[in-house]
């Protein structure tokens, strides 16, 4: 028996060393942790249980039968984050560059399926060279199996991807179908085809970073939801994110003990909105003053900055916050902001996370760039997402709510449950100046008359009372009481029951 135990220990040790010490050293020299080290940082100490440590590839071409490394380039299993179950797979770049063989894919599919059955999130850590070139079509089949599980799991369990090294070819599409993707700055890159192919096909000269680094995807393409300084920061932030999320669509969001009174008044909010309606202010200040202990996990902070999306808590329970940000492009809705917020709203709706929306929006962005880019379809995504969402929806209009954007931003008309406005709110078809220039065009040559008309329009329409008289907002609230009013509303909505008509699935304008 002793021999058998020793043999097992030896086999385990062989598997743990992956592609060998030299490759591990090279991984460290690039500023990256190994697949197993990453899991250690991600999960609670001692909680990781590994599966399929002895799996080997079955390829017999190109001399591969001589090169077998137990585990075959991916470490899989489950563990806990702050005591809650998660499934993990972590690509091991030291083994065939983390490339995907059929056996490697089967390991990933096994944890994906277990996660769905047992109702727990899947976290994938990527650092790999794509398809195992020696395996050919078997590798492509393996990718497709993973993609299939991604799709079936979507909306059932949270799926999170962290790109921590190369991620190319087949490897990019699995993350692309998960709920959130994060990258590590400088050490990771993500693209469908690499710089060499790009040069051949389009004659463009690009580096890994300028083609698919974190600076590209977190800021320009919006493919990823955040970029972190290094492996440790990324993994620590994923732990923080998981704390906000329900384990599956069968669960409610987790509730944390909280030491922040639900009725905490914030006097400073009474002066947050500047007297001049064109002066920006930081909507993030409102968010952090309303949520528990100022703790806000922002999604895509560097992309579509005119809308803020992220998770906070009210009375210990997770809420999804969406807010126009007057500091960037006056908080206008454009293509990027609409796409970003629509996806976030849908995530919250999938996973029973109530939506809190703060509105200060001058409308949709005008211009050929936006129209040619399909603003109509992209803007409709956000409208669609809010309209179909059946989770509790609480809205606070702080200042502008103009035109179609008023309708879109979780208005009463889209089944907003509780819709508040601050006294500074202006709920109207458009701003006073624009409105007067259109309806009193004939008086354009008379600035005095125009000024009087503008004043008249402001008095009659640029306020929350017209909407309040019609019941389109439920109450006009004191800014300092915003947290208390939202918390009270969410209490009343705890047992909300609302469903959409039966359908196979909807047809959101993609
Ligand atoms: C097999 C691979 C591999 C792969 C890397 N390796 N990629 N083995 N299949 N796809 C091996 C290398 O042979 C090497 O082995 C080790 O991993 C490390 O690779 P290096 O090239 O030395 O590392 P580095 O210089 O850091 O470059 C990393 C890299 C590069 C940029 C990822 O390896 C690379 O370009 N790989 C190929 C990428 C690729 O074209 N993949 C196929 C995409 S097509 P040794 O033994 O020397 O350590 C695809 C289609 C799927 O994925 C579509 C499905 C829908």
From TrEMBL:
Q: Cite the PROSITE patterns for this sequence.
A: COA_CT_CTER, COA_CT_NTER
GO cellular component term of the entry, any: acetyl-CoA carboxylase complex
Q: Cite the CoA carboxyltransferase N-terminal domain residue spans from the record.
A: 1-257
Q: Into which family does the record put it? A: Belongs to the AccD/PCCB family.
> Domain CoA carboxyltransferase C-terminal spans what residues?
261-500
Biological process annotations from GO: carbon fixation
Q: Which SUPFAM superfamilies match?
A: ClpP/crotonase
Name of the protein in its database record: Propionyl-CoA carboxylase beta chain
- Which Gene Ontology molecular function entries are recorded, alphabetically? acetyl-CoA carboxylase activity; propionyl-CoA carboxylase activity
Listed Pfam families: Carboxyl_trans
Organism of origin is Hyphomonas hirschiana VP5
């Amino acid at each position: 028996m002793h021999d058998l135990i020793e043999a097992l220990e030896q086999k385990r040790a062989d598997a743990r060393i992956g592609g060998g010490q030299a490759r591990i050293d090279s991984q460290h020299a690039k500023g990256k942790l190994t697949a197993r080290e990453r899991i250690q940082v991600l999960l609670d100490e001692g909680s990781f249980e590994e599966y399929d440590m002895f799996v080997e590839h079955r390829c017999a071409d190109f001399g591969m039968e001589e090169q077998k490394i137990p585990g075959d380039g991916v470490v899989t299993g489950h563990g806990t984050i702050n005591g809650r179950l998660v499934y993990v797979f972590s690509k091991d770049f030291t083994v065939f560059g983390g490339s995907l063989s059929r056996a490697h894919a089967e390991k990933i599919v096994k944890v994906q399926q277990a996660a769905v059955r047992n109702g727990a999130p899947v976290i994938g850590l990527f650092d790999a060279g794509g398809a195992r070139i020696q395996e050919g079509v078997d590798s492509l089949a393996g990718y497709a199996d993973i993609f299939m599980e991604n799709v079936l799991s979507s909306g059932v369990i949270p799926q999170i991807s962290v790109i921590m090294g190369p991620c190319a070819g087949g490897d990019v599409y699995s993350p692309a179908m998960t709920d959130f993707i994060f990258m590590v700055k400088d050490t990771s890159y993500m693209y469908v085809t690499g710089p060499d192919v790009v040069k051949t096909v389009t004659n463009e000269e690009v580096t890994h970073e300028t083609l698919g680094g974190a600076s590209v995807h977190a800021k320009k393409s919006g493919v990823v939801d955040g970029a972190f300084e290094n492996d440790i920061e990324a993994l620590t932030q994923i732990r923080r994110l998981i704390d906000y999320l329900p384990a599956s669509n069968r669960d409610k969001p987790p509730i944390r003990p909280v030491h922040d009174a639900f009725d905490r008044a914030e006097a400073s909010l009474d002066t947050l909105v500047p007297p001049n309606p064109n002066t920006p202010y930081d909507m993030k200040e409102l968010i952090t003053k309303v949520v528990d202990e100022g703790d806000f996990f922002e999604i895509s902070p560097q992309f579509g900055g005119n809308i803020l999306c992220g998770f906070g808590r009210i009375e210990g329970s997770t809420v999804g916050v969406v807010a126009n940000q007057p500091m960037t492009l006056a908080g206008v809705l454009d293509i990027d902001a609409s796409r970003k917020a629509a996806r976030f709203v849908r995530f919250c709706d999938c996973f029973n996370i109530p939506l809190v929306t703060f509105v200060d929006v001058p409308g949709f962005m005008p211009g050929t760039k936006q129209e040619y880019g399909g603003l109509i379809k992209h803007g409709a995504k956000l409208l669609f997402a809010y309209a179909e969402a059946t989770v509790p929806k609480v809205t606070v209009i702080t200042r502008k709510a103009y035109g179609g954007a008023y309708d879109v931003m979780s208005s009463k008309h889209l089944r907003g449950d509780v819709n508040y406005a601050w006294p500074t709110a202006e709920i109207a078809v458009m701003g006073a100046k624009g409105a007067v220039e259109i309806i009193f065009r004939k008086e354009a040559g008379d600035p005095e008359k125009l000024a009087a008309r503008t004043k008249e329009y402001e008095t009659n329409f640029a306020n929350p009372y017209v909407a309040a008289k019609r019941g389109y907002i439920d109450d006009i609230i004191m800014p300092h009481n915003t947290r208390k009013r939202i918390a009270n509303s969410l209490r009343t909505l705890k047992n909300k029951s609302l469903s959409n008509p039966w359908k196979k699935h909807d047809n959101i304008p993609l």
